[in-house]
Description:
single chain, TIM Barrel, 8-stranded parallel sheet, Hydroxymethylglutaryl-CoA lyase, HMGL, metal ion binding, PYR_CT
Amino acid sequence: MEIVEVGPRDGLQNEKRVLPTAVKVEYVRRAIGAGLRRIEVAAFARPDRVPQMADAEDVLRAVPRSSAVRYVALVMNERGLERALALGDARPDEINYVVVASDEFSRRNQGVTTMESLAAFRAVAQRARDAGFFVTLTVAAAFGCPFTGEVPVSRVRQIVQQSGPLDELCLADTIGVGVPVQVAELAAAVRGVAPLRAHFHNTRNTGYANAMAAVDAGFVALDSSLGGIGGCPFAPAATGNVATEDLAYLLNRSGLKTGVAVPAAAEAGAWIGAELGLEAVAAQLGRAGDFPAVAN
């Protein structure tokens, strides 16, 4: 099971402290040192709305490069793709484009309706694919909207059916309201469109149960952040992601190979928490320790 480390982007974007570029790059280095090989490192977002991502280009220019590591950047529109393309050799390997499942949340997050956002995605995706990017569509708030409540499975299916060709489809529980039965229902509704990835938040303590439901439903990748930091700055009470070290422990102990060394991941999670000035991170492994107490 592939773990996609999203801490440098989705983790940091919701934290109050804006970290220097050098600290973000060190965060990426520590993630690589823990065995993570696919890392979302930046978002091409408006600096006035997401100041934590204002140095996206600088981060991408500075992170270590290796054929074994793939970098992902969030792209919100055509302008974001232009910024990615302008980086040349320092550009990301993949782009992740977010379309929000409910109109109200989409307007607050991106200033457009869901279908307007989806139309923009189709244009950006075609250009990105022609330029050699791997393209992921993330359907945000697929499990529920903080402003309008339940999101029908049929709504998610409609978005996916109108998305055009995809390299990967990610279903995101942006506000952490999902439960395992929803994971199974959504997987059944979109199966066959593209390889499936899931993005869970642990707001209501269901994130890890949902992760295992995603494993059972055939998802091939799961998002998480070291320390369990992060959330969505445009969604009320959207607390952190599932923690990479906790998720890796769960998957490793379940016989699924992640390539993640839990002790190193826990150390990285504690380190980024200290850099952010947090009294403690949400992850449990830094306190409880791995089991058995040896390196994976």
